[in-house]
Amino acid sequence: MKSEKVLPPEVLSVRDLHIRFQLGREKRSALFRRGAKRELHAVRGINISIRQGETFSIVGESGCGKSTIARALAGLYVPSAGSIKFAWQAEDGNVGRVQNGTQMIFQDPYASLNPRWRIGRSLAEPLVLSKKVGSTRQARNYCGQLLEQVGLAAHDLDKFPHEFSGGQRQRISIARALATQPGFLICDEPTSALDVSVQAQVLNLMRRLQQEHGLTYFFISHNMAVISHISDRVGVMYLGRIVEQGTVEEIFSRPAHPYTRLLIAAIPQFDNPSTEREPIVGEAPNPMSPPPGCAFAARCRFAQPLCQQTMPPVHALSEEHQLECHFPAAVAAA
Amino acid sequence: MQTASETLLDVRDLSIEFLHRKGNLQAIHHLSLTMQPGEVLGMVGESGAGKSLTGAAISGLLQEPGRIKQGEIWFQGQRIDNLNDNARRQLRGKAISCIFQDPLTSLNPVLTIGQQLTETIRTHLPLTAAEASERAINLLTEVGMSSPAQRMHQYPHQLSGGMRQRVVIALALCVDPQLVIADEPTTALDVSVQAQVLRVLKRLCQQHGTAVMLITHDMGVVAEVCSRVAVLYAGRIVEMGPVAEVIRSPKHPYTRGLINSIPSMRERHAFLAQIDGTMPRLNTLPDGCAFHPRCPNVTEHCQRQQPDMQFKHLSQIACFNPYGETP
What we know:
- The structure holds two protein chains of two kinds.
- By secondary structure, chain A is an alpha/beta fold.
- Chain A has a single domain, classed as Rossmann fold.
- Chain A contains ten helices and eleven strands.
- In chain B, α4 packs across α5, α5 crosses α7 and α7 runs parallel beside α8.
- The relative contact order of chain B is 0.14.
């Protein structure tokens, strides 16, 4: 999906976002000396701008901070530094009231629905909480329509979650997220727990709803193929930083960061199996003690001493395509 | 037909059922397959298709209330499904070993890596402690662990997920089994680590001449590692053949639907091809072919009769109306 001429308005702007978690103290080193404070720097200064009606995705391995960003956007974490600003927020930017405009879809459809509530009650809950209706009963017709939108039937309102399969439950989660008619959906690995055939159904549903309602998606996944399918723009995350971002074409056809390249190459593709590929060696560093320089330097075959010492600068390769690397020319030449 | 001496594993007409007070539920229906020594066979299918259950039956880890209803399992010319627990246990670990999805739960948290490896080696082989320890260190080197001698004294919690799965692979291969049943060995790992672990598994099995039954839901993993693949649907093999043939020109409508529904990084479309509906539950299996309610090629015949496995080119397909050669 290309929008060449008039860009839609920006709905979300994240500037230099940092999120730190305090994790108590280390062991005492001496009887009267308290241990040093331990801190996990989960998100280390990221900038994102998301426009109306597009799908912006974050891809990365476990522990890179994808879900932390998602939860911060939903208002569940308060930024340690930097700002998260939605278009509909007042100038003073009260974080607590963001929820009406955003909703979230979670990974595990078994854990995200209350097993003791009928589906109707789960669907009406966001409406009751936002005082759009007085009771579950008043919202019954509307909730029935919501279920029909996601491919279930209105009479399913009286069922319990255990009566549904994983894919159906994920449809219910999507219906619940749409109940308050948000413009912005935060989807945290919405298809990771599903089988591929069900994943296809859910991805198609999300695409159709986006076209019908003009929704904006913030989509998180570790599955590169899903990301390449659903996204308009992609950010590749590594240890709390977005090391490369750009349009889906730029990221998948012209990946510029060594990590993005290896990540794409590492995926076993059923339609393009290769026996000779370069595996990524080693594992991501511990986020408790991120290295002073480029976080990927330890695993990068282009790394020079400089990479380990200083943070890499941001290069703009095109209007959308940005990359954090000391030696982009060396990588591009390889 | 292969002669019995060449065939490593021969599963004949295996049916598995679960005992249930409202009537027994049959989970595997008349499943037959053979594996040759050193072969890597992929078993793919969606959750509940019966992949893991088949693996459990072969390794002798089928638990109550599941039981083999009928059929035979032959391993190296010996019938193994009717052996007693003790004989099964001796076979398992020595001739057939298993790798499971979650490396943390397959390792003992209170024993060091070295203790676990040497214990397994000495249970099955007549070696001294020093010889077993040397063998263990060699294995850890083979699976790509750095400083293996130090790793021997570490506990599972001190290792990362990828390293733990390497230890599990070392454990599975430590007495040179003929068959490894790997049940979703890389599903819990990140893609970059998955590639490393798959590579280790594939290389080691080639070196040792070990056959692998790789149970997975990931077609990409199958394409990368396996030589043959069996596609399961609702407890039956619906298509089985060489990986290249099954993936390039799937003939069963389910296999084709499954492959088309995988997002591809090479071609992007607005919508994915989807198979509507879900796999039937065990208690509501339709008559005839279990796939017929979701099948685009369905005819009246499919609703009444279960198709048998038939050879078509190099693959076997259970379908009355399969697709032709080209997709």
